[in-house]
């Protein structure tokens, strides 16, 4: 079984300059640095996660993504990552446009709320707690939920071109009916 990091890394060219927006503890960036020889930069707001990045030797800036990325020039990175970041942002469109501006390409992923087990749980009257959505409704950091099918509309509205759209479930890529069969959605995109 392939790890989520390996699925992402397979779409990041070796030696790329990578910016991870909402990089968390820096584990993915450390993986890209070590396995793909990438030059990595993280952006994170949580002080505890900044410390975790530093422990991994990952360069990280403490920034609020809601304020934009004006400190980065156009196309200053080969790949920009938005892994589980979009549901936590109020201004999702602006963040996506900024990611496309500073990166030649981007990879976005988020928990797919249309996954059949989540649908079943909601139909039963409860919001789910899953590996991809590990919080109770009252303590989630997510401002919103989305489905795999939702991203195409958002990408079009932001003037982005989606190069690859697929799902991920249990460490496997899901290309057939990902809106129903994948617990996570993943997209490779660039500016239109």
Structural write-up:
By secondary structure, the protein is α/β, with parallel strands linked by helices. The protein has one domain (4-191): Rossmann fold. 30% of the residues lie in helices and 27% in strands. The chain has seven helices and eight strands; from the N terminus they run αβαβαββαβααββαβ. The chain has helices at 4-9, 27-36, 47-55, 92-102, 116-123, 148-157, 178-181, and strands spanning 17-21, 39-44, 60-62, 77-83, 103-111, 160-169, 172-174, 184-191. It has an eight-stranded mixed sheet, with helices on both faces. Strand 6 (160-169) and strand 7 (172-174) form a beta hairpin. The radius of gyration is 16 Å and the shape is globular.
Salient structural properties:
alpha/beta; single chain; eight-stranded mixed sheet; globular; Rossmann fold; 192 residues
Q: Can you count the helices?
A: 7
The CATH superfamily turns out to be Vaccinia Virus protein VP39
Overall structural domain count: 1
Residue share in helices? 25-40%
SSE pattern: HEHEHEEHEHHEEHE
**DSSP strand count:** 8
Shape: globular
CATH fold assignment: Rossmann fold
Per DSSP, what share of the residues sits in E-state strands of 2 or more residues?
A: 25-35%
Major sheet strand order: 3-2-1-4-5-8-6-7
Rg to the nearest angstrom?
A: 16 Å
Under CATH at level 1, the class stands as: Alpha Beta
Mean pLDDT: 92
The description of the largest β-sheet is:
8 strands, mixed
In angstroms, what separates the terminal alpha carbons? 34 Å
CATH architecture: 3-Layer(aba) Sandwich
> From the helix content, strand content and strand pairing, which structural class follows?
alpha/beta
Low-confidence stretches: none
């Amino acid at each position: 079984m392939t790890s989520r990091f390996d699925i992402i890394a397979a779409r990041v060219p070796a030696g790329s300059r990578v910016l991870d927006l909402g990089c968390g503890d820096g584990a993915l960036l450390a993986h890209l640095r070590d396995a793909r020889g990438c030059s990595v930069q993280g952006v994170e707001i949580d002080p505890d996660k900044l410390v975790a990045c530093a422990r991994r030797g990952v360069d990280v800036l403490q920034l609020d993504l809601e304020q934009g990325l004006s400190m980065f020039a156009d196309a200053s990175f080969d790949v920009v990552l938005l892994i589980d970041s979009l549901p936590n942002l109020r201004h999702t469109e602006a963040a996506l446009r900024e990611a496309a501006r500073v990166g030649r390409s981007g990879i976005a992923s988020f928990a797919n709320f249309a996954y059949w087990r989540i649908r079943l749980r909601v139909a039963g009257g409860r919001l789910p707690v899953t590996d991809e959505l590990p919080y109770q409704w009252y303590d989630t950091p997510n401002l919103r939920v989305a489905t795999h099918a939702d991203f195409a509309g958002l990408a079009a509205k932001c003037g982005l071109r989606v190069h690859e759209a697929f799902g991920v479930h249990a460490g496997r890529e899901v290309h057939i009916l990902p809106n129903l069969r994948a617990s996570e959605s993943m997209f490779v995109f660039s500016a239109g």
